[in-house]
């Protein structure tokens, strides 16, 4: 019930999102006083939001031997086209580690990309990323990891009431930046709509 209440804050029809749009980081300097220091480092320096493309990028290219034979070119194109699968999350928002997003080592560290299904799920997705990816990422700079570890060691345990307040702040600041809940083919997804600036 609590999660549903949180999710209701940012419901909109912000889908599909343009793949070329520039997305904001989860946190900026205005958020720093209100979030856990470890979360601030992850949300402002490590996690990068992006629009999920229409097609998966793992379509196998035709081999050099087959493409050299002109008689097989048409067949190769058909095979390549058949292997180019549409991504069922296309046009929605996910988050990835900005340091290993193009690295050949990214598969060695789990959770390099996370897929929050709602604005209310951003907080939990961050916790999964923090626990499962950061320490295993070979591409994350040692200086960033060290600052994150220092923030963890100096952090204090928060009461349940404070944790609820923190989660509410995650939702309110994400909504302020333009992240929205959307429903795509009956499934909850994360979308984006550029916030409208008010004139006074």
Give an overview in words:
The chain is of the alpha+beta class and 200 residues long. The protein contains seven helices and five strands; from the N terminus they run ααβααββαααββ. A three-stranded antiparallel sheet has the order 1-2-3. The chain has a two-stranded antiparallel sheet with strand order 4-5. A hairpin with a 2-residue loop joins strand 4 and strand 5. Helix 2 (37-46) runs antiparallel to helix 6 (142-154). It is globular, with a radius of gyration of 20 Å. It starts with a helix and ends in an 8-residue tail after the last strand. Mean pLDDT is 78; it is low at 1-10 and 58-68.
Low-confidence residue ranges? 1-10, 58-68
* Beta strand %: 5-15%
> How many beta-strand runs?
5
Strands in their spatial order, largest beta sheet: 1-2-3
Give the helix level as a range of percent.
Answer: 25-40%
For the sheet with most strands, the description reads: 3 strands, antiparallel
Mean pLDDT: 78
**N-to-C terminal Cα separation, in Å?**
37 Å
Radius of gyration: 20 Å
What is the 3D shape? globular
Number of helices: 7
Structural class by SSE content? alpha+beta
Order of helices and strands: HHEHHEEHHHEE
């Amino acid at each position: 019930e609590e999660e549903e209440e949180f999710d209701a804050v940012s419901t909109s029809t912000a889908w599909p999102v343009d793949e070329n749009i520039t997305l904001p980081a989860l946190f900026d300097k205005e958020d720093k006083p209100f979030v856990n220091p470890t979360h601030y480092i992850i949300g402002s320096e490590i996690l990068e939001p992006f629009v999920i493309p229409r097609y998966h990028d793992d379509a196998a290219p035709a081999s050099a031997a087959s493409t050299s034979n002109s008689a097989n070119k048409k067949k190769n194109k058909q095979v390549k086209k058949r292997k180019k699968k549409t991504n069922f999350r296309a046009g929605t928002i996910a988050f990835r580690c900005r340091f290993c997003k193009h690295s050949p080592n990214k598969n060695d560290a789990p959770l390099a990309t996370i897929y929050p299904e709602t604005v209310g799920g951003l907080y939990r997705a961050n916790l999964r990323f923090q626990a499962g990816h950061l320490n295993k990422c070979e591409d994350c700079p040692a200086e960033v990891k060290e600052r994150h570890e220092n923030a963890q060691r100096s952090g204090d345990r928060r009461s349940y009431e404070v944790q609820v307040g923190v989660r509410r702040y995650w939702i309110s600041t994400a909504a302020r930046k333009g992240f929205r809940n959307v429903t795509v083919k009956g499934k909850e997804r994360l979308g984006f709509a550029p916030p409208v600036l008010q004139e006074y």
